[in-house]
Write a structure and sequence with these properties.
The complex is a heterodimer of chains A (about 160) and B (about 575). Chain A has about 160 residues and is an alpha+beta fold. Chain A is about 30% helix and about 45% strand. In chain A, the strands form two sheets. In chain A, strands 5, 6, 7, 8 and 9 form a five-stranded antiparallel beta sheet that branches. Chain A has a four-stranded antiparallel beta sheet with strand order 2-3-1-4, with helices on one face. In chain A, strand 2 and strand 3 form a beta hairpin. Helices cover about 35% and strands about 15% of the residues of chain B. Chain B is built from 21 helices and 19 strands. Chain B has helices spanning about 5-15, 30-40, 50-65, 75-90, 120, 140-150, 165, 190-205, 215, 220-230, 260-270, 285, 320-335, 340-355, 370-380, 390-400, 420-430, 450-460, 475-480, 500-505, 515-530; strands at about 5, 20-25, 45, 70-75, 95-100, 130, 155-160, 170, 205-210, 235, 275, 295-300, 315-320, 385, 410, 435-440, 465-470, 510-515, 535-540. In chain B, helix 1 (about 5-15) packs across helix 2 (about 30-40) and helix 15 (about 370-380) packs across helix 21. The N and C termini of chain B lie far apart (about 75 Å). The chains are: A alpha+beta (about 160), B alpha/beta (about 575). The complex binds thiamine diphosphate (TPP).
Chain lengths: ~160, ~575
């Protein structure tokens, strides 16, 4: 099962290396990882998307806790939460496809942030499903380049 | 305002504050300021001959005394030479602080002379590590390092000290307390869970205690003994738990697992309740996880929550310090006693009588097991014994009469050849009045044989007993059993040095025994000699260790020697 795990760590150099190293060393797979500072500049929040059964996830959580710099680990999957990732997509366009692409972008509430003769750059945020759905629809026009951030997530309420 | 003092002096003053009296180290360029400070310090510094030995010595010091062991090495190659010793301490949860020199802060990351990213290298093998980038952080970092190393599940902590930090000056103040909000070990186990555990102990018909290194780390040996006397539950100690329960007791099953006693393995396999204390279900203990103790419910007590459920899903998990949990358990047991399981104890006694550890003496040649028995006879189980890794290590675990905690020092998790001799050095420094023995293989001893110079220089009366089979015996045994006797690169015969002459070259007493009739006299002479001794005991070449549960096997399906 897919789990979203939020890890609050001390905002110090080397912490990310410890977390990433833990995953490779213990043989766990990370689907995505996003890091940024929190409301308190002493702490960073790492959002991890990982796959595994309950026993593996429990081990991952415990192993993360074992790192001295780890302050808190929350398995958000067990709570109602909101999840977002961002994608920047460069799509090749022609005069005849431009309007159709813009229409699709509108439906997904994506933003067109760069236009040239040959390409459009579209910015899209949403959960994984929305991003996947968008990519399926525009694939046929030709995706020149795709950048995704990985998920970040927060508890509701 | 106090005077400004150099970082190197802050280091030494901080070590004093942590009650460090002994350091094992080796100098180098970036350590010059620290060594200059050591020159007029009253901390004893032991100059080893290889940094790996410094780490193992600090480890043996810690294992035998319960104090934090401290080692010191220079940047680059000095630091990387510590790596095996740090990994060894990490696998066995030994409290240690490793100090490494580093190039000056402005040179870090530039592939400078003798630069190695030692914090990066040791991330997976330390409990935590630090790179000190400002002298302002130095004292606090040292305080934190010792705190992390000795609390919770103990382990090695490394502090990397850039040269300019050791030269910078600042007023010294050692912090009284430190607070690491993200690090709060749990010492007290849940009373609710302990009650559930006691309930299971009352209902069980065939319970067994598996006692691990956690009991020794938390000094819970007395509590374990009390628990056993209250409940009559038999105890099997893992390699790391050896000494937590006396081998000569009726309820001792000695060691379980790959080279465990047959009776421990049968008992564990048949048991309906396992009380695992401070042990981590290593594959050398369990064999194949799916077939481990198939009928048993499991109570797992450990201070490290991540150990619980890592290999075996327990029925009752208890997170807490072994000593605390056992104390609470004992209190509650006094109110709700557990009746001894008479039938089970008869079965266990019967197993012990039917399948004792044994060997068959033939010919006029020394058997390794006979060496262990002779050591028992001479030391009465009072010596501190370190071992290297191999068949000799397993015979030491099986046949020596282990009576006390912190008296058996063996590389459990990493299985490090070369560990024993320097570990014995550390133990001798920590226990100057005790007889300290290293049981060595002729292969292993050559991994840190240069430490003969250290014992000679400091007059450390360590006795090394080399079980000389002219083979890398343990590997030879596997090749015999699983590779049709194709002895690939394990035969040391003919290329072996003369160990007596080597000892003499270092001004250490060298002795040799080749016949059973000589052994006792030679060992007596070694043990009564007021200085270090190398004893070359020439033994039966192809003796193997039994019983043997092949890797990934089932505990009750052991191989036994054909000769006994
Ligand atoms: C540093 C290291 N290298 C290799 C091994 C693999 N190994 C395990 S036991 C063994 C043979 C040990 O030989 P010896 O020290 O002579 O002891 P014996 O088994 O003969 O008693 C080897 C090579 C190891 N454990 N450690």
């Amino acid at each position: 099962m897919r789990h979203v795990v939020s890890v609050i760590v001390e905002n110090k150099p080397g912490v990310l290396a410890r977390i990433a190293g833990l995953f490779s060393r213990r043989g766990y797979n990370i689907d995505s990882l996003a890091v940024g500072i929190t409301e308190n500049p002493d702490f960073s929040r790492i959002t991890l998307v990982v796959h595994g059964d309950d026993i593996i996830i429990e081990q991952i959580v415990k192993q993360l806790y074992k790192l001295i710099d780890t302050y808190k680990v929350i398995d958000l999957t067990k709570q109602t939460h909101i999840e977002r990732e961002m994608a920047l997509v460069k799509i090749s366009v022609t005069a005849s496809t431009r309007s159709e692409i813009i229409e699709i972008a509108d439906i997904f509430r994506a933003k067109i942030i760069d236009v040239s003769e040959k390409n459009l750059v579209i910015e899209l945020t949403g959960d994984q499903d929305k991003i996947e759905g968008f990519l399926v629809l525009i694939k046929k026009f030709g995706i020149v380049e795709l950048v995704r951030t990985g998920s970040i997530a927060i508890q509701r309420g | 305002m106090t005077d400004k003092i150099k970082g190197s002096k802050i280091l030494l003053e901080s070590l004093k504050q942590e009650n460090v009296t002994d350091i094992f180290g080796y100098p180098g360029g970036v350590l010059l300021d620290i060594y200059d400070e050591i020159y007029n310090s009253d901390i004893n510094h032991f100059l080893v001959r290889h940094e790996q030995a410094a780490a193992h010595a600090a480890d043996g010091y810690a294992r035998s005394s319960g104090k934090v062991g401290v080692c010191l090495a220079t940047s680059g190659p000095g630091a990387t030479n510590l790596v095996t010793g740090i990994a060894n301490a990490y696998m066995d949860s030994i409290p240690m602080v490793a100090l490494t020199g580093q190039v000056s802060v402005n040179l870090i990351g530039k592939d400078s002379f003798q630069e190695a990213d030692i914090t990066g290298i040791t991330m997976p093998i330390t409990k935590h590590n630090f790179l000190v980038k400002s002298v302002k952080d130095l004292a606090e970092t040292i305080k934190k390092a010792f705190y992390i190393a000795r609390t919770g599940r103990p382990g090695p902590v490394l502090i990397d000290l850039p040269k300019d930090i050791t030269q910078a000056r600042i007023p010294f103040e050692y912090p009284k307390d430190i607070n690491i909000p993200s690090y709060k070990p749990t010492y007290k186990g849940s009373i609710k869970q302990i009650k559930v555990a006691i309930d299971l102990m009352q209902k069980a018909l065939k319970p067994v205690i598996l006692a691990g290194g956690g009991i020794i780390a938390s000094n819970a040996s007395a509590e374990l003994r009390e628990l056993v006397s209250l409940t009559g539950i038999p105890v099997s100690s893992t390699l790391m738990g050896i000494g937590s329960y006396p081998y000569n007791d009726k309820l001792s099953l000695k060691m379980p697992g790959m080279h465990g006693t047959a009776y421990a393995n049968y008992a564990v396999h048949d048991s309906d309740l396992i009380i695992a204390i401070g042990m981590r279900f290593d594959d050398r203990i369990t064999g194949k996880l799916e077939t481990f103790a198939p009928k048993a419910k499991i109570i797992h007590i450990d201070i490290d929550p991540a150990e619980i459920g890592k290999c075996i899903q327990p029925t009752v998990p208890i997170v807490g310090d072994a000593k605390q949990v056992l104390k609470d358990m004992i209190e509650l047991l006094k109110e709700t006693p557990v009746e001894p399981k008479k039938e089970w104890l008869e079965i266990v006694q019967d197993l012990k009588e039917k399948h004792p550890l044994s060997y068959k003496q033939t010919g006029d040649v020394i058997y390794p097991q006979f060496v262990m028995e002779t050591i028992n006879q001479l030391t009465k189980g009072e010596a501190i014994i370190a071992t290297e890794v191999g068949t000799h290590q397993m015979w030491a675990a099986q046949f020596l009469n282990h009576l006390h905690p912190r008296h058996f020092l063996s590389s459990g998790g990493l299985g490090t050849m070369g560990f024993g001799f320097p570990a014995a050095i550390g133990a001798q420094v920590a226990n100057p009045d005790k007889l300290v023995i290293d049981i060595a293989g002729d292969g292993s001893i050559q991994m840190n044989i240069q430490e003969l110079s250290t014992v000679a220089y400091y007059k450390l009366p360590v006795k090394v007993i080399i079980i000389n089979n002219r083979y890398l015996g343990m590997v030879r045994q596997w090749q015999e059993l699983f590779y049709e006797g194709r002895y690939s690169h394990v035969d040391l015969e003919g290329k072996q040095p003369d160990f007596v002459k080597i000892a003499e070259a270092y001004d250490v007493l060298g002795l040799r025994a080749e016949k059973p009739s000589e052994l006792k006299k030679v060992l007596e002479k070694a043990f009564s000699h007021n200085g270090p001794v190398f004893v070359d005991v020439v033994v039966n070449r192809e003796e193997s260790v039994y019983p043997f549960v092949p890797a990934g096997g089932v505990l009750n399906k052991m191989l036994f020697s054909e000769r006994t």
